[in-house]
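User: Can you predict the 3D structure of Mitochondrial glycine transporter? Sequence below.
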Amino acid sequence: MDRKPSSEISQRLISGATSGFAAAVALQPLDVIKTRLQQVEGHNESINKKNLSSLLKSTRVYDITKAIIKEEGLRGLWRGTSPTLWRNVPGVALYFTSLQSLRSYMITTGLFLPNHTSNGKSSSEFSRLNSRGNLISGALARTAVGFLLNPFTVCKARFESNLYKYKSIVGALTDIVKQSGPRGLLSGFSASALRDAPYAGLYVVIYESMKDYGSQFNANGNNIPPPLIYSVSGLFAGTTSTLITHPFDVVKTKMQIFPNQYRTLSRSIVTILKNSPRSLFAGSGIRITRKALSSAIGWTAFEELARLLKKTNK
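Assistant: Sure. Here are the predicted C-alpha coordinates for Mitochondrial glycine transporter:
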Protein backbone atom coordinates (compact mmCIF):
# COMPACT_ATOMS: atom_id res chain seq x y z
CA MET A 1 0.00 0.00 0.00
CA ASP A 2 1.33 3.43 -0.96
CA ARG A 3 1.85 5.52 2.16
CA LYS A 4 3.18 8.57 0.30
CA PRO A 5 -0.04 10.66 0.41
CA SER A 6 -0.50 10.23 4.16
CA SER A 7 3.20 10.90 4.71
CA GLU A 8 2.98 14.16 2.74
CA ILE A 9 -0.07 15.26 4.71
CA SER A 10 1.76 14.55 7.98
CA GLN A 11 4.73 16.58 6.78
CA ARG A 12 2.48 19.55 5.95
CA LEU A 13 0.71 19.33 9.31
CA ILE A 14 4.00 19.24 11.23
CA SER A 15 5.53 22.05 9.16
CA GLY A 16 2.42 24.20 9.45
CA ALA A 17 2.05 23.66 13.20
CA THR A 18 5.71 24.50 13.82
CA SER A 19 5.60 27.68 11.72
CA GLY A 20 2.33 28.72 13.39
CA PHE A 21 3.83 28.26 16.86
CA ALA A 22 6.97 30.24 16.04
CA ALA A 23 5.09 33.19 14.53
CA ALA A 24 2.45 33.27 17.30
CA VAL A 25 4.88 33.37 20.22
CA ALA A 26 7.29 35.84 18.60
CA LEU A 27 4.64 38.33 17.49
CA GLN A 28 1.96 38.11 20.21
CA PRO A 29 2.89 41.54 21.72
CA LEU A 30 1.95 43.23 18.44
CA ASP A 31 -1.46 41.53 18.52
CA VAL A 32 -2.10 42.69 22.09
CA ILE A 33 -1.21 46.30 21.26
CA LYS A 34 -3.32 46.21 18.09
CA THR A 35 -6.35 44.89 19.99
CA ARG A 36 -6.05 47.63 22.63
CA LEU A 37 -5.80 50.27 19.90
CA GLN A 38 -8.92 48.99 18.15
CA GLN A 39 -10.70 48.65 21.48
CA VAL A 40 -10.26 52.35 22.20
CA GLU A 41 -10.55 54.05 18.80
CA GLY A 42 -14.05 55.16 17.84
CA HIS A 43 -15.76 53.24 20.65
CA ASN A 44 -19.53 53.51 20.94
CA GLU A 45 -20.62 56.02 23.58
CA SER A 46 -23.34 53.60 24.68
CA ILE A 47 -20.77 51.20 26.13
CA ASN A 48 -21.36 51.06 29.88
CA LYS A 49 -19.26 53.20 32.20
CA LYS A 50 -17.65 50.20 33.83
CA ASN A 51 -16.15 49.22 30.49
CA LEU A 52 -15.30 52.79 29.60
CA SER A 53 -13.36 53.26 32.83
CA SER A 54 -11.10 50.34 31.91
CA LEU A 55 -10.34 51.60 28.43
CA LEU A 56 -6.93 53.12 27.89
CA LYS A 57 -7.11 56.86 27.39
CA SER A 58 -4.30 57.20 24.89
CA THR A 59 -4.26 55.74 21.41
CA ARG A 60 -0.53 56.17 20.89
CA VAL A 61 1.35 52.89 20.49
CA TYR A 62 4.10 53.99 22.87
CA ASP A 63 1.68 55.02 25.61
CA ILE A 64 -0.41 51.87 25.30
CA THR A 65 2.69 49.68 25.43
CA LYS A 66 3.97 51.59 28.46
CA ALA A 67 0.60 51.28 30.21
CA ILE A 68 0.42 47.53 29.59
CA ILE A 69 3.90 46.97 31.05
CA LYS A 70 3.16 49.24 34.02
CA GLU A 71 -0.17 47.64 34.92
CA GLU A 72 0.45 44.02 33.93
CA GLY A 73 4.20 43.66 33.76
CA LEU A 74 6.20 42.57 30.73
CA ARG A 75 4.18 39.35 30.55
CA GLY A 76 1.13 41.51 29.81
CA LEU A 77 2.44 41.88 26.25
CA TRP A 78 1.94 38.12 25.85
CA ARG A 79 -1.60 38.23 27.23
CA GLY A 80 -3.80 35.90 25.22
CA THR A 81 -0.93 33.72 24.01
CA SER A 82 -2.76 30.55 25.07
CA PRO A 83 -5.86 31.05 22.85
CA THR A 84 -3.58 32.38 20.12
CA LEU A 85 -1.66 29.10 20.13
CA TRP A 86 -4.89 27.10 20.20
CA ARG A 87 -5.98 29.00 17.13
CA ASN A 88 -2.69 29.41 15.26
CA VAL A 89 -0.92 26.08 15.72
CA PRO A 90 -3.74 23.84 14.44
CA GLY A 91 -5.01 26.72 12.29
CA VAL A 92 -1.80 27.21 10.32
CA ALA A 93 -1.30 23.45 10.07
CA LEU A 94 -4.82 22.95 8.71
CA TYR A 95 -4.53 25.98 6.43
CA PHE A 96 -1.31 24.89 4.71
CA THR A 97 -2.50 21.29 4.47
CA SER A 98 -5.92 22.17 3.06
CA LEU A 99 -4.39 24.79 0.77
CA GLN A 100 -2.05 22.30 -0.89
CA SER A 101 -4.73 19.57 -1.04
CA LEU A 102 -7.14 22.00 -2.67
CA ARG A 103 -4.49 23.22 -5.10
CA SER A 104 -3.62 19.64 -6.04
CA TYR A 105 -7.27 18.94 -6.77
CA MET A 106 -7.67 22.15 -8.78
CA ILE A 107 -4.78 21.09 -11.02
CA THR A 108 -6.62 17.89 -11.95
CA THR A 109 -9.58 19.91 -13.25
CA GLY A 110 -7.36 21.55 -15.86
CA LEU A 111 -9.09 24.89 -15.28
CA PHE A 112 -6.41 26.58 -13.20
CA LEU A 113 -3.14 25.62 -14.87
CA PRO A 114 -0.51 28.39 -15.02
CA ASN A 115 -0.43 30.38 -18.25
CA HIS A 116 3.32 29.99 -18.52
CA THR A 117 6.08 27.86 -17.13
CA SER A 118 8.76 29.66 -15.15
CA ASN A 119 12.25 29.30 -16.58
CA GLY A 120 13.64 29.15 -13.07
CA LYS A 121 13.78 26.07 -10.92
CA SER A 122 11.14 26.35 -8.24
CA SER A 123 11.66 24.64 -4.88
CA SER A 124 8.22 25.62 -3.64
CA GLU A 125 6.17 23.02 -1.77
CA PHE A 126 2.98 24.29 -3.42
CA SER A 127 1.44 23.13 -6.68
CA ARG A 128 1.55 25.78 -9.40
CA LEU A 129 -1.73 27.45 -10.43
CA ASN A 130 -2.69 30.54 -12.40
CA SER A 131 -3.66 33.76 -10.61
CA ARG A 132 -7.34 32.85 -10.52
CA GLY A 133 -6.50 29.49 -8.96
CA ASN A 134 -4.21 31.16 -6.40
CA LEU A 135 -6.96 33.60 -5.44
CA ILE A 136 -9.68 30.95 -5.08
CA SER A 137 -7.56 28.38 -3.25
CA GLY A 138 -6.27 30.89 -0.71
CA ALA A 139 -9.71 32.35 -0.03
CA LEU A 140 -11.49 29.00 0.34
CA ALA A 141 -8.87 27.39 2.58
CA ARG A 142 -8.60 30.41 4.87
CA THR A 143 -12.38 30.87 5.22
CA ALA A 144 -12.98 27.18 6.02
CA VAL A 145 -10.27 27.04 8.68
CA GLY A 146 -11.40 30.40 10.08
CA PHE A 147 -14.92 29.07 10.58
CA LEU A 148 -13.70 25.97 12.43
CA LEU A 149 -11.45 27.94 14.78
CA ASN A 150 -13.56 31.09 15.25
CA PRO A 151 -14.35 30.23 18.92
CA PHE A 152 -10.64 30.53 19.71
CA THR A 153 -10.48 33.79 17.72
CA VAL A 154 -13.22 35.23 19.97
CA CYS A 155 -11.32 34.04 23.07
CA LYS A 156 -8.10 35.51 21.70
CA ALA A 157 -9.60 38.96 21.19
CA ARG A 158 -11.13 39.00 24.67
CA PHE A 159 -7.98 37.74 26.38
CA GLU A 160 -5.94 40.45 24.65
CA SER A 161 -8.44 43.09 25.70
CA ASN A 162 -8.29 44.38 29.28
CA LEU A 163 -12.09 44.23 29.63
CA TYR A 164 -12.35 40.54 30.51
CA LYS A 165 -10.79 38.65 33.41
CA TYR A 166 -10.90 35.10 32.13
CA LYS A 167 -8.75 32.58 33.97
CA SER A 168 -8.77 29.83 31.34
CA ILE A 169 -9.88 29.07 27.79
CA VAL A 170 -12.56 26.67 29.07
CA GLY A 171 -13.85 29.39 31.39
CA ALA A 172 -13.89 31.88 28.52
CA LEU A 173 -15.75 29.55 26.16
CA THR A 174 -18.26 28.70 28.91
CA ASP A 175 -18.89 32.37 29.69
CA ILE A 176 -19.33 33.26 26.01
CA VAL A 177 -21.95 30.54 25.58
CA LYS A 178 -23.63 31.56 28.84
CA GLN A 179 -23.83 35.23 27.85
CA SER A 180 -24.53 34.97 24.12
CA GLY A 181 -25.51 31.37 23.47
CA PRO A 182 -23.65 29.05 21.08
CA ARG A 183 -23.82 31.70 18.36
CA GLY A 184 -21.49 33.81 20.49
CA LEU A 185 -18.69 31.43 19.53
CA LEU A 186 -19.11 32.60 15.93
CA SER A 187 -19.15 36.28 16.88
CA GLY A 188 -17.38 38.38 14.26
CA PHE A 189 -17.08 35.53 11.75
CA SER A 190 -18.83 37.51 9.00
CA ALA A 191 -16.29 40.31 9.37
CA SER A 192 -13.47 37.75 9.67
CA ALA A 193 -14.58 36.09 6.42
CA LEU A 194 -14.71 39.43 4.61
CA ARG A 195 -11.22 40.12 5.93
CA ASP A 196 -9.65 36.66 5.53
CA ALA A 197 -11.06 35.53 2.17
CA PRO A 198 -9.72 38.47 0.14
CA TYR A 199 -6.61 38.67 2.34
CA ALA A 200 -5.66 35.02 1.81
CA GLY A 201 -6.61 35.10 -1.87
CA LEU A 202 -4.58 38.23 -2.57
CA TYR A 203 -1.74 36.95 -0.43
CA VAL A 204 -1.33 33.71 -2.37
CA VAL A 205 -1.54 35.55 -5.71
CA ILE A 206 1.14 38.07 -4.71
CA TYR A 207 3.29 35.48 -2.90
CA GLU A 208 3.37 33.09 -5.86
CA SER A 209 4.03 35.94 -8.31
CA MET A 210 6.95 37.18 -6.23
CA LYS A 211 8.40 33.67 -6.03
CA ASP A 212 8.13 33.40 -9.82
CA TYR A 213 10.13 36.61 -10.18
CA GLY A 214 12.75 35.19 -7.80
CA SER A 215 12.97 31.94 -9.78
CA GLN A 216 13.31 33.82 -13.06
CA PHE A 217 15.99 36.02 -11.50
CA ASN A 218 17.95 32.92 -10.49
CA ALA A 219 17.51 31.49 -13.99
CA ASN A 220 19.53 34.43 -15.32
CA GLY A 221 22.65 33.31 -13.50
CA ASN A 222 21.94 34.65 -10.02
CA ASN A 223 21.90 32.52 -6.89
CA ILE A 224 19.37 33.85 -4.38
CA PRO A 225 18.79 31.35 -1.53
CA PRO A 226 15.20 29.99 -1.53
CA PRO A 227 14.59 31.10 2.11
CA LEU A 228 15.36 34.70 1.11
CA ILE A 229 12.93 34.49 -1.81
CA TYR A 230 10.22 33.11 0.50
CA SER A 231 10.86 35.80 3.14
CA VAL A 232 10.80 38.74 0.74
CA SER A 233 7.74 37.33 -1.03
CA GLY A 234 5.99 36.86 2.31
CA LEU A 235 6.83 40.37 3.52
CA PHE A 236 5.56 42.03 0.36
CA ALA A 237 2.43 39.89 0.07
CA GLY A 238 1.60 40.27 3.76
CA THR A 239 2.00 44.06 3.75
CA THR A 240 -0.13 44.63 0.64
CA SER A 241 -2.93 42.23 1.57
CA THR A 242 -3.16 43.49 5.15
CA LEU A 243 -3.50 47.14 4.16
CA ILE A 244 -6.35 46.37 1.75
CA THR A 245 -8.36 44.25 4.22
CA HIS A 246 -7.66 46.03 7.54
CA PRO A 247 -11.05 47.75 8.05
CA PHE A 248 -12.75 44.37 8.46
CA ASP A 249 -10.21 43.45 11.13
CA VAL A 250 -11.38 46.46 13.14
CA VAL A 251 -15.03 45.47 12.69
CA LYS A 252 -14.22 41.90 13.74
CA THR A 253 -12.49 43.04 16.93
CA LYS A 254 -15.36 45.35 17.89
CA MET A 255 -17.93 42.57 17.37
CA GLN A 256 -15.96 40.12 19.50
CA ILE A 257 -15.10 42.48 22.36
CA PHE A 258 -18.39 44.42 22.50
CA PRO A 259 -21.02 41.89 21.30
CA ASN A 260 -23.92 43.83 22.82
CA GLN A 261 -23.06 47.05 20.98
CA TYR A 262 -21.88 45.51 17.71
CA ARG A 263 -24.38 42.73 17.01
CA THR A 264 -24.37 42.49 13.21
CA LEU A 265 -21.86 43.27 10.48
CA SER A 266 -23.91 46.04 8.85
CA ARG A 267 -24.81 47.66 12.17
CA SER A 268 -21.19 47.51 13.30
CA ILE A 269 -19.93 49.23 10.15
CA VAL A 270 -22.57 51.97 10.44
CA THR A 271 -21.76 52.52 14.14
CA ILE A 272 -18.01 52.77 13.51
CA LEU A 273 -18.49 55.16 10.59
CA LYS A 274 -20.83 57.29 12.72
CA ASN A 275 -18.45 57.48 15.69
CA SER A 276 -15.13 57.79 13.88
CA PRO A 277 -14.51 56.75 10.24
CA ARG A 278 -10.75 56.92 10.77
CA SER A 279 -11.00 54.18 13.39
CA LEU A 280 -11.48 51.68 10.55
CA PHE A 281 -7.72 51.91 10.19
CA ALA A 282 -6.96 51.84 13.93
CA GLY A 283 -3.93 49.67 14.57
CA SER A 284 -3.21 49.29 10.86
CA GLY A 285 0.49 50.03 11.29
CA ILE A 286 0.82 47.43 14.05
CA ARG A 287 -1.19 44.83 12.10
CA ILE A 288 0.78 45.41 8.90
CA THR A 289 4.04 44.97 10.80
CA ARG A 290 2.77 41.85 12.54
CA LYS A 291 1.27 40.29 9.40
CA ALA A 292 4.33 41.05 7.28
CA LEU A 293 6.67 39.48 9.84
CA SER A 294 4.27 36.61 10.52
CA SER A 295 3.99 35.86 6.81
CA ALA A 296 7.76 35.94 6.34
CA ILE A 297 8.34 33.68 9.36
CA GLY A 298 5.40 31.35 8.80
CA TRP A 299 5.68 30.71 5.08
CA THR A 300 9.48 30.49 5.09
CA ALA A 301 9.43 28.06 8.03
CA PHE A 302 6.72 25.97 6.37
CA GLU A 303 8.43 25.70 3.00
CA GLU A 304 11.84 24.96 4.50
CA LEU A 305 10.55 22.44 7.06
CA ALA A 306 8.41 20.70 4.46
CA ARG A 307 11.39 20.44 2.14
CA LEU A 308 13.62 19.15 4.97
CA LEU A 309 11.07 16.53 6.05
CA LYS A 310 10.63 15.42 2.45
CA LYS A 311 14.39 14.87 2.10
CA THR A 312 14.52 13.03 5.44
CA ASN A 313 11.76 10.63 4.42
CA LYS A 314 13.24 9.78 1.02
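The first helix runs from residue 4 to 40. The chain has a mean pLDDT of 84.
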